[in-house]
User: Fold this.
Amino acid sequence: MKIVPLAIFVFLGSFIFFTACDQVNKEGFTGVRVIDNSYSPPVVRIYEGGMVRFFNAGNNPHNVIAVGETWGSYKEIPKNDFLDVTFEKEGLYKYLCSFHASPEGDWGMVGSVVVGDIDYEDYSNFQKADAVQSFSGEIRLVPREYETIQDAVNSSNPGDMILISPGIYYEEVIVNVPSLTIRGVDRNKTIVDGEFERANGFLVAGVDGVAIENITARNALLNGFYWATVEGYRGSYLTAYNNGDYGVYAFDAVDGVIEHSYASGSPDAGFYIGQCYPCDAVINNVISENNGLGYSGTNSGGDLYIINSIFRDNKGGIAPNTLDSELLPPERESYIIGNLIENNNNLEAPAWDAQYISLGNGVVIAGGNNNYIKNNVIVNHDVFGLVISASLDDNYWPAHGNTVEENLIINSGKADIAVSGISNLKNCFVKNQFDTSIPPGLQLLNNCNFNVLPLGSDLHGLWNLIARFINANTGDYQKGNWKEFDAPDPQPNMPIMQMVLSKNYKFKDFQKSIMPAVDVFEGYSGKLNEINLPKEAYKYFDENSLH
Amino acid sequence: MPGVSIFPINDVPLLSLFLNFYGYYLPFFLYATWTSLALMDISQSRYSSNVFKVSWTLVVTFIPLIGSFVYHLFIAEQIHVAVRATMIFGGILIFTGVIVYLGFAL
Assistant:
């Protein structure tokens, strides 16, 4: 009989333990959490002779080096390790992470330490030139006028267009001019190649309103296309394959759209929108296959739409998630509507440990709140078709208030729909067509009209994740090499560029198609009412109605 | 610094989180208690025939909750009536209470 009080003690005790951890007064130093692509807090104030401990709580390696290299070190701080720095003299000490910021510290992952009682201006991460609303009329041609894309960017003014002829460009393009429209003439033949040596295909570094269109990025060590800390972005008709982290990546970016694009062969997500609220962003009509995850978004949400897209043959399908290692938790208010999510069981897809955990799941809501999942077709997954699960990082993040409506979810290994974790509240299921659920009766008992029966505490899925987590940590799982995937089939060109290629177009129409990415989300709102499943999804309705 | 408490979600009281967990597992706990005590009672019965015992064992085992509910209500002889009433009606009352509370709280 003693086991029962013991269990209660352990359960309640863990609350006290976790709460107490946060209240420990770390005497002797001031802590700065180094998380993925920012320092938190970005400005700390200490006394003369005080010490700052930079603790890497992120998932990636970072470092701390002074702007001007007077202190700190280029040596990376591994995950869960720290660097102590003592500041003897009064002053303002600016620093940066050499992996994720510019050497001058004017954009990227930067922070500052204020020592002593001095006046200081709040240190902004970016010095931004202003975005402009419309096309300037200037078209810069690569390679006819500029040898490299970077040369063209460096010569540009806000609002210009850079038009890139077919060819393979061996460079990393860092875009630091706002409101540029960068476009390839032929999506499949205009290729930026990182040769497994350079970090990104395109990095839009803190400048607003940049549109990248009709081009391919491959073989970058990190990301194919990367918008970092921007307001206003657009990626149209992009192809990203065999990039070492993400395919198309928007981090700390708001007001954007990623549309008609394709991503494969990334060990993390093919498409990613993270750390934004409200994001005001749309992913429309994309194809994501052979990635670690089809879509992932940590701590993002708020008018974030993922619509009309195909996520297939990845390790895991769609995984909006909450983590403490990035800012703005929790993930919330993402609208996942009208997508085809199929066969995400791909053992040969590349992955990092965190992506392997989602293997065999169609949609994983990990610690997310108030998401809306409607009219999707989710089929052929080895584990769960859709699972709403808690997320455990520094904090425990239950998944609350998610609505799952009118989806077709069939042919899943363990269950078509599932809720898992300790106390996920107010998740509701209505009018879904499915066969199995864990716990049983989920849609009947937790429907959206009457939803008080406490079914949000089943642990089945959580055990499953923990088992995967152990496998991931021991490296005991199968994955493919991201460098070795085949090039995708040719993808459709942007309509106006297709007309240009067939030499059947009016220059006026071409000019009209050039728009910097300003007020993108607002301009897109009409299209959010016309959500159509990809046509590949309809075969499952036919098959299913035969039963 | 993000997330300083373990449940940093607004609008969700800790009690609701706890009762959701408790409420999910309570029926399993009641099933285990009712069934095991019913089986104990059957095995210790001094007056019933073997056919009667075997029949009720099958009922209690194969009709979860309802079988043992009926047994405790009408058949049981060894376990004191107060214990049975507490176990049966007390269990149902607590479960109802949890659901009613969650209904108002959420």
The CA atoms of residues 21 and 96 of chain B lie 15 Å apart. The first helix of chain B runs from residue 14 to 44.
